[in-house]
Design a protein that fits this description.
The complex is a heterodimer. Chain A has helices at residues 7-34, 42-59, 62-78, 92-113, 124-158, 162-167, 184-191, 195-226, 232-243, 247-261, 267-292, 295-303, 308-319, 321-337, 340-345, 354-361, 368-388, 390-400; strands at 38-40, 84-86. By secondary structure, chain A is mainly alpha-helical. A two-stranded antiparallel sheet of chain A has the order 1-2. Chain B has two domains: 71-173, Sandwich (Immunoglobulin-like), CATH 2.60.40; 186-420, MetI-like fold (Orthogonal Bundle). Chain B is flat and about 115 Å long. By secondary structure, chain B is of the alpha+beta class. In chain B, the strands form two sheets. Chain B has a four-stranded antiparallel sheet. A four-stranded antiparallel sheet of chain B has the order 5-6-3-8, with no helix packed on it. The chains are: A mainly alpha, B alpha+beta. At the A-B interface, α1, β1, α5, α8 and α9 of A face α1, α4, α5, α6 and α7 of B. Chain B: Keywords: Cell membrane, Membrane, Transmembrane, Transmembrane helix, Transport.
């Protein structure tokens, strides 16, 4: 380890590592954005990064590092062995822009990572701080990439035409020439495949699930949190236990029961069964919140002559509006995203929820972009809700849910 | 103290003992509590406890998907022949091929335009206009046809419409396989048979363990990244939650599209970059498919771990770090000796909870591979046995195995939980 505590070792090492990260990122980004043949030249990236890292520790001046990195990447590119390799038919302008991008992606962060690292022996602190800066940069790139790429692919695929997709699966450029035809998959889904109705069904089912869940779990949670009765501890523990029973175990008897009772293929049956999966979660989340409320306020209400129920209605609930919002959002999300029960209990296309509708698109006869358009239609409302109310959502997730 | 008249000893006031038992108020409170809990108890027992008992029951019954509809006699009526040959024919069969129906009786009304021409075939009798055929008990796979000779003066088509216009009623009783007294251990014998079960169990444990541990480690990394305030922190935090918030069906199909061997972008990218010479079938090859579904699990659930770990991190007292700084602790030392011990509680609770839920996970693998290419876990096996192989009993037996594993895990969980109380 100690050999690393020298600037002239750590600098080039971290520089080279970062250069590899940067070059791969730029290559993947350019490939996904343009569909052109680009690939990273790892060996050259290591060379450029190491030299940039050396420059950074020699003078510690950011502009010098930038200049060195730029000069090296440019000259390597001119020499024909650049940090990015291009296919034969790639436009020179795109090549120039991507190489510049790669150079900037190497130089800037390398200078930043190696800030305060001298040429000779450095302290353990300085070394570890540099490593942490490197890991931080890598982390941001890594997480953003793994989250953004699938959603980018989802949206862009839904806008492609079938033959363009087969021709070059990497080409996600928008064919702006198609004009309104870009949204053809969406139009067909909404008109020919009845997705408008599925959207509505999903919405109604989710809202009803939220209402029913709250109606059951608010009194239950209050009782568990505030009132003393025998079996309270047992009860609050069994909530958690029930919350752990997997749906697939219950799904078979529910399927049989619903078949016999004629509840299969009805929206009513779905609304009947969804709340049962969410009541334990909601109860668990709400009772945690109710416990945190000061009991004195409620006692004051009791002293002033309110009954228990009036106390709940007039004092506890107004105080717990944020928690109710979190729970509602979380329950809405569960109901909106639910797949297993909808898949098992609904066969009639006129009763489908959105998730069930998408599942029916997964066949070899229906083109891929329809499937992805369906995925976008299901994702956008929940995402919009999530981004709009992110504060409540994160709290809701953190409060009750280690479940998924 | 020689007084003859001893004064009566002063009675001490009755000792202020706390009231024994539960007072009226307490009882009223308990009553209210139960009233508030009653709807939930009712709903949960109806939808959780009853199905749980049912699954045990079904797992020892020889029941197939087709048995869900009870066996019933099916009858078809038609008017055959003309003139002197004219007759009503009833064709009766048992809808089940192996279960008997008891006391099968067919009744029908002879329409006014038709009249009896001769003796009806046994076991039918005609009284007035009532036709009654008593078939008694019919065994599985039973088929019969009986004819009643009739005549009529009207046009043939009118007669036919009249004859078939009065639908015959047929009654009979059959025991339902779900409620009768036949029990079997064949379901369990079947699912434990051979190495298939142990392979499924092995796959389940691999998926559960690595999926959970991976999501936890990646989540820890993400939490470390976001445990500082900078511009855009909120946006990144929201962004990193996307995989968890989006509907599973949307993201699973996106992964399938992305990694498609023919038209998938991932393959195109790898081919372009020269990493691989030919397209890789990510979700179709044996060890790779399992690794891919595990990666999907990590990808989809790291946001949850990161959320919890981040919440815990932000509640750690900063004084400690300041003291460590004074003592000259390096960044890694601070993480190793200060942060990590503070996080072990939440990490172990998260691990156990996530372990249980990953073990229970069905949707993800079902949507990604359908359980093919060596990715069949226990939960997918329930579906496979019950619906793909149409053997409800065997599916229920797998479900029972899952439930027993779950009980085992939860017992362990509650033990650790009461020690840690991190959550």
């Amino acid at each position: 380890m100690r050999v690393l505590w020298f600037g002239f070792v750590a600098g080039p090492l971290l520089g080279a590592l970062w250069a590899v990260v940067a070059v791969v990122t730029v290559a993947v980004a350019v490939a996904f954005a343009t569909g052109e043949a680009v690939r990273p030249g790892i060996g050259m990236a290591v060379l450029a990064g190491a030299l940039a890292g050396l420059a950074a520790v020699v003078r510690g001046a950011r502009w010098l590092t930038m200049l060195v990195a730029l000069a090296i990447t440019a000259s390597l590119a001119v020499a024909g062995a650049g940090v990015l390799r291009f296919g034969p038919e790639v436009a020179p302008r795109l090549e120039a822009v991507s190489v510049l991008l790669a150079a900037a992606a190497i130089a800037g962060p390398v200078a930043r990572v190696l800030e305060g690292v001298g040429f000779r022996a450095i302290t353990r602190h300085a070394f570890e701080a540099a490593v942490i800066r490197f890991l931080t940069g890598f982390g941001y790139v890594f997480f953003t990439a793994i989250v953004v790429i699938p959603f980018y692919v989802m949206i862009m695929t839904s806008l492609k035409s079938q033959q363009a997709l087969l021709q070059n699966p990497l080409d996600f450029t928008l064919e702006l020439g198609r004009g309104a035809d870009l949204f053809r998959s969406y139009r067909e889904l909404l008109t020919d495949y009845d997705f408008g109705r599925y959207l509505w069904t999903s919405f109604v089912v989710s809202v009803l699930t939220v209402l029913v869940t709250l109606a059951f779990s608010i009194p239950g949670a209050y009782a568990v949190a505030r009132l003393r009765f025998r079996g309270r501890a047992l009860f609050s523990r069994s909530i958690l236990l029930i919350y752990m029973v997997p749906m697939i175990v219950l799904a078979l008897p529910i399927y049989i029961g619903f078949s016999m009772a004629g509840l299969r293929n009805t929206v009513f049956g779905i609304v009947l069964i969804y709340p049962v999966t969410t009541i334990p979660v909601a109860l668990y989340m709400l009772q945690g919140y109710f416990r945190g409320l000061p009991a004195e306020v409620e006692e004051a209400g009791l002293m002033d002559g309110l009954g228990r129920l009036a106390v709940i209605w007039k004092i506890t609930l107004p105080l717990s509006l944020p928690a109710l919002a979190s729970v509602s959002l979380y329950v809405f999300m569960i109901a909106w995203n639910e797949f297993l029960l909808a898949f098992m209990l609904l066969d009639d296309p006129s009763k489908f929820t959105l998730t069930r509708g998408i599942a029916s698109l997964n066949s070899s006869e229906i083109p891929r972009q329809h499937l992805m358009a369906g995925a976008v239609i299901a994702t956008v409302p929940i995402m919009a809700l999530f981004l709009g109310l992110e504060r409540f959502m994160t709290r809701g997730l953190a409060a009750g849910a280690v479940k998924g | 103290m020689s007084d003859t008249t001893e004064p009566a000893p002063i009675q001490p006031p009755p000792a202020a003992t706390p009231p024994r038992g539960r007072g009226r108020l307490a009882r009223r409170e308990a009553r209210l509590a139960w009233r508030l809990l009653l709807p939930t108890l009712f709903a949960v027992s109806l939808a959780v406890v009853v199905p749980l008992l049912a699954i045990f029951w079904i797992s020892v019954k020889p029941v197939e998907l087709a048995d869900l509809r009870p066996p019933a006699p099916v009858v078809r009526e038609s008017l055959r022949g003309s003139g002197e040959e004219m007759r009503i024919q009833y064709r009766l069969r048992n809808s089940s091929r192996d279960r008997e129906i008891r006391g099968v009786v067919l009744t029908d009304t002879l329409p006014g335009v038709l009249r009896l021409r001769g003796e009806p075939e046994a076991p039918c009798t005609v009284e007035g206009r009532e036709i009654t055929c008593d078939f008694g008990d019919i065994e599985g796979g039973f088929r019969a046809s009986v004819e009643v000779p009739v005549a009529g003066d009207e046009d043939e088509e009118v007669l036919e419409a009249a004859a078939e216009g009065s639908a015959p009623v047929v009654t009979g009783q059959a025991s339902h396989v779900l409620t009768d007294g036949t029990f079997t251990l064949a379901n369990f014998a079947r699912i434990f048979d051979g190495e298939a079960f142990w392979r499924v169990l092995g796959v389940t444990l691999f998926y559960t363990f690595f999926g959970t541990a991976g999501a936890l480690l990646v989540g820890l990394f993400a939490a470390l990244l976001l445990d500082r305030s900078f511009r855009g922190q909120g946006i990144l935090r929201g962004l990193y939650l996307f995989p968890y918030v989006a509907p599973v069906i949307a993201v699973a199909f996106t992964w399938v599209t992305l990694f498609d061997p023919f038209s998938g972008s991932a393959n195109a990218l790898l081919l372009r970059m020269g990493v691989t010479g030919e397209a890789i079938n990510f979700f179709g090859e044996r060890p790779l498919a399992l690794i891919m579904v595990t990666l999907f699990e990590v990808w989809r659930y790291f946001p949850l771990s990161f959320l919890f770990i981040l919440a815990r991190m932000q509640s750690i007292d900063t004084d400690m770090y300041e003291a460590a700084d004074m003592d000259g602790a390096s960044p890694f030392q601070k993480f190793r000796y200060l942060s990590l011990p503070q996080l072990t509680g939440i990490l172990s609770v998260l691990f156990l909870l996530r372990f249980i839920w990953t073990f229970n996970k069905f949707d993800d693998i079902f949507l990604l591979t359908g359980g093919n290419a060596g990715t069949r876990v226990l939960t997918v096996n329930v579906y496979e046995q019950a619906f793909a192989l149409s053997n409800i009993g065997a599916g229920a037996a797998v479900a029972v195995v899952i439930f027993l594993c779950l009980v085992l895990f939860s017992a362990f969980f509650f033990r650790v939980m009461s020690r840690e109380e991190g959550l």
